[in-house]
Structures are given as C-alpha cells and as structure tokens.
Model the fold of this input.
Amino acid sequence: MGANHNHHPRSSGKTLFLALSLTTFFALVEAVAGWLANSLALMGDAGHMITDSFALAIAAVAAWLANRGATGRHSFGLGRVEFLAALLNSVIMLVLVAYIVVESVLRLLSPEPVQGHMVTAVAVIGLLVNLLVAWILSRGEKNVNTRGAMLHVMGDLLGSVAAIISGVVISLTGWMKIDPILSIFISVLILYSTIRLLREAIHALMEGVPLNLSPEKVKDAMAAVPGVQGIHDLHLWSLTSSQASLTAHVVVDDLSQWPAIWDALQTVLKKRFGIDHYTLQVEDAAMAARCDTPHH
Done:
C-alpha cells in the first residue's frame, strides 16, 4: 500500500489579511455613510463588502490553520473549518438580502429622500478601495481561496458602480426610486454569490467530490497507467477548498512492478489533477479475481 500526505500550506496569508483589513474597514465606513445618507444602495453595497470580508476572513483563517497541521484529535488538520464558516456566512447573508429587498420594495412604494452627493462621494472611494484590494489579491499566490476572493471583489466593483449611478441620478434628477431599484440589483449580486458559497459549503461538508474534479476521469487516467489492470473503491473528497483527498484500490498485473506503477500514479494524480493527498491499496490481479469469484 502506498500513501502520500502532503500538508504544505498554499495560501498567501499576509495578502489575504491585508485585503481583509481594507475591505472590512471601508465596509463599516460605507455602512455608516449609507445610514446617514439614507441610501439603501450604499448600505447594500456595504453589505456586499461585508460578505467579501467574511470570504477573505475564511480564507485568511484557513491559511493560518493550515500552518498548524494535524493534531492528535484532528488527524487531517483544521482546514475544513472554512466550510463551517462559509455555511454560517451564507445564512447571515441570506437574511441580509431578504431585509434589503423588503426595504427596497417599501421604498419603491413610498420613496424617501436620499443625499445623492454623499452617496456618490462614498461610492467613488469604495470603487477605489475595491480596485486596490483587487490589485493586492492579484499580487499574491494564486489558489482557490484567492481566486474566490477575487470573484467577490469583482462583485463589489459592480456594487460600487451601481451606488455611484444612484448618487449621480439622484443629484441630477431627484429621482429617488433609482436607489431602491439599484439596491435590488446589488441584492441579486449578493444572492448569487451567497447561494454559490452555500452550495459549495454543504457539498464539502457532506464529503462531496470536489466540484473541479470528476471521479470517472481520475479513475480512467489511473487505469491507463501501464501495469494497472483496474481501479475500484475510489473515493474523492475535499480536505480544504484547495486540497482534495483520494483513496483507491489498484489492481496490478505484477506486484513486483508496483514501485514503478506507484511513481506513475503519483505523477498522474499530482500533475494532471492537483491531488497531493492520497492513499492507494495495491492488489494482485489473480488474487482480486479469486475474491470476485462467486461462491456456490
């Protein structure tokens, strides 16, 4: 039997913590400004930035926990805590989306005055902050966490643009309904990213196959290695958002060829599929055939 247990952290912790600090600080500033300006669009954009802050916090905490490695009570380490945090984050954001949509509908029916100049000024600063965060993330190491965080920041950029449009329209025309209309638009952005995050968290916690991998393709690639007669009992799941784990039984023609087959399987799993945590049980073809023979 062969096993490989690689637990090298692959995240840019400093980059994530810096992006988290900037996003969280301005989200709070934008939320206060939105309340003072009576702008749902601004508060909605602040809510979206808070979503991103949670996403960045999850990634940053996961990077920190990954450095701690396995313990006697947690043999796989603590990286899966990011999925629990993502689940909590998703539920909180669904409640926020529902609140913003209800308030937006009420304001469409009964518009309230909004300070357009303040909305525009704060949203422009928010756009610049989001551009800075995107630049910081682009300079860091590329992995699943940072790519996911970048997607959130791109949504933030759209939210800031929507808030700017709301402020300009109100300042120039006095049309107050633009604020709740764009608030609903921002809520849709939040809802899309939240449902996606919720789906991924539940899938991972239920030991689902990583969404970027296909068990059939992995099995076929392993079976194509010379000397391998078959693959069975293959299991594939996520240890963290950036680390998949695999176990499988490998049926070989000749046990003496196992060292060479093992090297070839490692290459396939690591280089082709990015799987660096796996345990393989080798079986002799003749023995496997006898075990599979039905007894009468």
User: Anything to note?
Assistant: The chain has two domains: 7-205, 215-292. Residues 215-292 form a domain with the Alpha-Beta Plaits fold (CATH 3.30.70.1350). The CA atoms of residues 119 and 167 lie 5 Å apart. The chain is about 65% helix and 10% strand.
